Amino acid sequence: MMERIRIIPLLVVLLISLTFVSNACFDPLDPTVIENKTNQNLSIFLNDEHIGDVAPGRQIRNKTLLFGYAKYVVQAKNDRGEIVYSKVFTYEEMKQIKWKVVVNKIGE
Questions:
Q1: What average pLDDT values come out for the chain (108 residues) when binned by 10 residues?
Q2: Residue 79 and residue 89: Cα distance in Å, rounded?
Q3: Which CATH number describes the domain made up of 27-103?
């Protein structure tokens, strides 16, 4: 029983330490936001993962945090499956835009 009591504070300290280290080393703390400024419904992909569909004038957030990648590929496909937006961002570029990507009207 005494050993169990000693282990609990160690586990608490370890969990707190890991929280600080992970927050200091990784961005984003919030998921990536994709804003659809087109007049089309779009299917959004982040690093080949389909994160959902977004209506015109709306935003979508990916449900999983993606960090530690050298690059972030954001793609948007229209209802016909055609890629209407594709851009590769570096980690630093994503930090600069505060993890928010705006898909403008096609051709802009």
A1: 57 56 47 93 94 96 75 94 94 90 78
A2: 24
A3: 2.60.40
